[in-house]
Every structure is written in C-alpha cells, then in structure tokens.
Amino acid sequence: MGTNIPLERIDDNRWLIPQRYNDAMRVPGMVYADDELIQTILSDNALQQVANVASLPGIVGHSLGMPDIHWGYGFPVGGVAATDAETGVVSPGGIGFDINCGVRLLATDLHYDQVKGKVAELADRLFDNLPSGVGTDGMRQLTEQEMHDVMVQGARWAVDEGYGFAEDIDMTEEQGCLEGADPSAVSKHAIQRGRKQLGSLGSGNHFCEIQMVDHIYNQEAADAMGIGRKGQIVATLHCGSRGMGHQVAEDYIKLAEAKQEDFGFHLVDRQLACLPLDSEEGQAYLGAMKCAANFAWANRQLLMHGVRQSFASVFGRKARPKDLPLVYDVCHNIAKMEEYEIDGEMKRVCVHRKGATRAFPAGHPALPEKYQAIGQPVLIPGDMGRYSFMLVGAPGSMEQSFGSCCHGAGRRMSRTAAKKAVGSKQLLEMLEKKGVTVRVHSKNLLAEEAPQAYKDAQQVVNVVHNAGLASLVVRLRPLIVVKG
DNA sequence: ATGTTC
C-alpha cells in the first residue's frame, strides 16, 4: 500500500524518498505535504510512482510530488520530473491523457449584491452557451485546414476568428501557443476527434464556475490582477484538449511501449514508457503534444467567449465582454524545455508537469509586464463545495521544483469509491444548502466530483505557500457550477 | 481525462 516507502522528514512541508530505497532510482524523491496530508498520500501508491519516476533515463534533481499528489497512469498526478535535454527522455505518461488541461480566470466589475438575484438565470445561460458532457460536439466544427491552423496557432487562431481580444493572448501562458507544433505527427484519428470538439467543456473534473472573492491574503497582488475587492465576482474555466489530446496521448503511449526494447529501456513500470529526446519518435511526440496544447488554448479561448456572452446577455452594459478581462491562463499537463541551475551549472531540461502548475516568480522573463512585479498568477481550483485559490509564483519554485507547484485539491477517493460513498441527490441538496447553484449533464458523474472525494484545497495551498513555491493571494467561494 | 470496455 505504499506504506513501506521510506520517508525522511526534511521539515514541516517536505519529505525525502532516499535514492537508496532501490537500485533503479537515479535521483531521490521529494514530496511536499504536512503531517496530515502525508497520511492521505500514503494511503494509495502514489509515492511508489514518485520512486518509479526517479528511475527515468536522464532525470535530474528530484522526482517531485506536490501536496495534491495521487495515483495516475505511470506517473502520479501532482508530479514533476525534469530530464536532461541531451541525455534524457520524454514520457507521454508524464504529461497525462489530457494534454494542456488548464485553468483560466476572468475578472468582472460585478459585486455579489448585483448578481445574487440573477444566479439561476446566469447559470442557465452558461449551461446553454458552454457545450458540455462526454463526447459532446463543440461550438465550432472545423475544416481540415482550420484544424491545422488551430494546432499551429493556438489561442491566436481563436482571437482572429472573433473569440475574445488580442489582450487575452498576453495573459495566457506561452501566449497560448507552443512553437514547434507539428501537425504531421498527429494521427488522422486525433485530428478527426478534434475537428468536432473545439469549444466544448467535456466532462469529469472540467467545469465553469462563477465564484466570489472570499478572502484576500495579499492586497497588492490581488489589485494587480484586478481581483482585489471582497465580494467581487469572477469566472473560472477548467478544461483541456478533449478527445484530441487524449488520442495523441494514447497514440504515443502505444508507440513508446512498442519501442522500449529498441531503445534498450527496461523500466520498472511499463506505463513509464518513454522516448529519447534526441530521437525521431521523441521529437514527433513533442510536436504532436504541442498541437494538442495549442488546441486546448484555442478551446479555452472559445469557452471564455461563451462565458462573456452569457454575462452580457444577463447583465447588459454592466458586464460587456471588455469588462471581463482575462486575468491569466495556466496549463497543468505539459512538457516544456526550460533552463535551471542544477549542481551549480545551468542545464536545459524537459520539465514534465502532470497535474502541476508553472509558478514562475516576479521578474521572470516569461511573465507579461503586468505581472513582472508580483509573479505569475497560479490558479488552483479546489472542489465545487468549498473554495479555490489564486496564488503567485515564488522564488523557491526555481530552486526546488523546476518552477512548479500544485494544481488543485487532489483526489482522496477514486471515482468508483466516490460514487459508492456519495448519492447524487444528497450531494445536490448539500450544495444547494451551501449556496452553490449547479447545472450538470450527468448527475451520476457529479458524485465522482463530490467535495468529499477531494483533499482540502486550503491545506494543499498552505503547504506550497509555506514551502516557498507559490504565495497565497485570494480565496474564492463557488456560486455557480456548470459541468458535464 | 476519455465516443468512460477498440
């Protein structure tokens, strides 16, 4: 049950898995958790996966586990691993099935008092305007040429098509587009799945939430982001690359598994299957992954347009599209080539973030001018009953975690366990009692996302705050949840 | 996460 993993306590927020735990480990593991969270983490095998990841060819630093870590395909969700650009590998399981799953947050000028009488109407509009559910078609059906352009241009394509504004691009990680996307590396099947789904929310833990600013930890940073008033209404989207990214992941996991012998890899878990960064196959995966990432950014751009339209139709001149600026968009399932100081020298590495958010500190050149002084906004959705958080990246992330921190609350119950433990009727009643208005396609699936199925996001963000990876800015309370 | 067992 993972409890035989040796853990050495470093301090109140850090636990080391020593390299001597087994012969396969090339680096130690490091897990971020407090005394209570580490007990939850020990109850599944996620720490064994942290140790497994430490055996990847070319891995440097530590195999990292964030406080929201839980069991995933090969790699844990809530994990970070960096591999040497020259001698290392990329592993599709280290990015995950939902390539560029991410979160974006829009501010509004509205206060809760202006919204409370129109909550049901707004919820209905959002539900109408944001296609959701398993296998649902999106707002746009794309020609093959349009699909090609989406994969290469990302969010920019959507803005050029009239979804949103040029300013949105600057407030998106990587300006909503990874260079080097290679459509020829994407299977026909993945392309066909994508053509139907641009501008759709999907299912599972994906959602649109309307939230209110509930607590302010850092007024200066909150003001810089335009979310510094208590009671202020904001909108959050959590979504990824839908069936398109899923197909890319599946295609390349299969390829990698078939190639392990050829590359001479004998990994401790076949789900760690990986491709050398300097191989044709490794580069093909990265080219295809970038296509899926760009698709996801265009997808969130279309969905954001749907959110702005919904507000405009309910609140008129008080919430025109221009009055709902994008605060920031982060990606939490991706591999990126970045540079870090390791053992005193600068090294180029492939950072795998799987359920982990980039958390660059103030002054980082990748940040827009607007956030140079405060650091990168880090969006951490919690669960639909309690709260979500906005943080900013802190200097410790550059020293400890390859510019990364947690991505959410993290599951404490599997989907099947949650469905067994929670009845959908009681759940809806409980949410209503808490003042959360829910619009959902499948009540059955809602139970899998019950607050009880998740760790306490407050505890999770406290750990990354105290460890110096990111710094708390505001807490948000949910008012409306729209889901598949 | 996912045309949720191609």
UniProtKB/TrEMBL annotation:
<feature type="binding site">
    <location>
        <position position="238"/>
    </location>
    <ligand>
        <name>Mn(2+) 2</name>
    </ligand>
</feature>
<keyword id="KW-0547">Nucleotide-binding</keyword>
<keyword id="KW-0342">GTP-binding</keyword>
<feature type="binding site">
    <location>
        <position position="98"/>
    </location>
    <ligand>
        <name>Mn(2+) 1</name>
    </ligand>
</feature>
<dbReference type="GO" id="GO:0006396">
    <property type="term" value="P:RNA processing"/>
</dbReference>
<dbReference type="InterPro" id="IPR036025">
    <property type="entry name" value="RtcB-like_sf"/>
</dbReference>
<dbReference type="GO" id="GO:0046872">
    <property type="term" value="F:metal ion binding"/>
</dbReference>
<dbReference type="GO" id="GO:0005525">
    <property type="term" value="F:GTP binding"/>
</dbReference>
<dbReference type="InterPro" id="IPR001233">
    <property type="entry name" value="RtcB"/>
</dbReference>
<comment type="similarity">
    <text>Belongs to the RtcB family.</text>
</comment>
<keyword id="KW-0692">RNA repair</keyword>
<feature type="binding site">
    <location>
        <position position="388"/>
    </location>
    <ligand>
        <name>GMP</name>
    </ligand>
</feature>
<dbReference type="GO" id="GO:0170057">
    <property type="term" value="F:RNA ligase (GTP) activity"/>
</dbReference>
<feature type="binding site">
    <location>
        <position position="483"/>
    </location>
    <ligand>
        <name>GMP</name>
    </ligand>
</feature>
<dbReference type="Pfam" id="PF01139">
    <property type="entry name" value="RtcB"/>
</dbReference>
<dbReference type="GO" id="GO:0042245">
    <property type="term" value="P:RNA repair"/>
</dbReference>
<keyword id="KW-0464">Manganese</keyword>
<feature type="active site" description="GMP-histidine intermediate">
    <location>
        <position position="407"/>
    </location>
</feature>
<keyword id="KW-0436">Ligase</keyword>
<feature type="binding site">
    <location>
        <begin position="381"/>
        <end position="384"/>
    </location>
    <ligand>
        <name>GMP</name>
    </ligand>
</feature>
<feature type="binding site">
    <location>
        <position position="206"/>
    </location>
    <ligand>
        <name>Mn(2+) 1</name>
    </ligand>
</feature>
<dbReference type="GO" id="GO:0003972">
    <property type="term" value="F:RNA ligase (ATP) activity"/>
</dbReference>
<feature type="binding site">
    <location>
        <begin position="205"/>
        <end position="209"/>
    </location>
    <ligand>
        <name>GMP</name>
    </ligand>
</feature>
<feature type="binding site">
    <location>
        <begin position="407"/>
        <end position="410"/>
    </location>
    <ligand>
        <name>GMP</name>
    </ligand>
</feature>
<keyword id="KW-0479">Metal-binding</keyword>
<comment type="subunit">
    <text>Monomer.</text>
</comment>
<protein>
    <recommendedName>
        <fullName>tRNA-splicing ligase RtcB</fullName>
        <ecNumber>6.5.1.-</ecNumber>
    </recommendedName>
</protein>
<feature type="binding site">
    <location>
        <position position="332"/>
    </location>
    <ligand>
        <name>Mn(2+) 2</name>
    </ligand>
</feature>
<feature type="binding site">
    <location>
        <begin position="332"/>
        <end position="333"/>
    </location>
    <ligand>
        <name>GMP</name>
    </ligand>
</feature>
